[in-house]
Design brief:
The protein has 123 residues and is mostly helical. Helix content is 63%, strand content 11%. It is built from five helices and three strands, in the order H-H-E-H-H-E-E-H. It has helices at 5-15, 18-27, 34-38, 45-57, 77-114, and strands at residues 32-33, 61-66, 69-74. 15% of the residues are buried. The model has no long low-confidence stretch (mean pLDDT 91).
Length: 123
Amino acid sequence: MMRTPNHLDQTLLALADPTRRAILQRLSTGETRVTELARPFAMSLNAVSKHIRVLERAKLVRRRREGREHFLSFIPKPMDEAARWMEAQRSNWTARLQALDDLLQEEDRAAASARPATKGRTR
């Protein structure tokens, strides 16, 4: 089931930031504690948590609690939906541009055949 455009907006917004993409890259290898996830970033845990909240809002990340520990895992479905949307847009625009190119080439051929043949100039 395709999510609403608002979900697509949330996904694209989440993917627009390099820190959030790096977090997703790390989570693609498996579930990780929030503290371990934040460790390599040169920012506070609070700043990383703000990025995680954006990813959770986009439903790209799932949080699981075990006692005081918070574990995060990657959910690829929203990214797959965004990729399908982008591919549909690419196909649509490729077809439109090909139709325009075909039309312009046809006009060039028609213009070339309508020109009278020129002979060498005489003085």
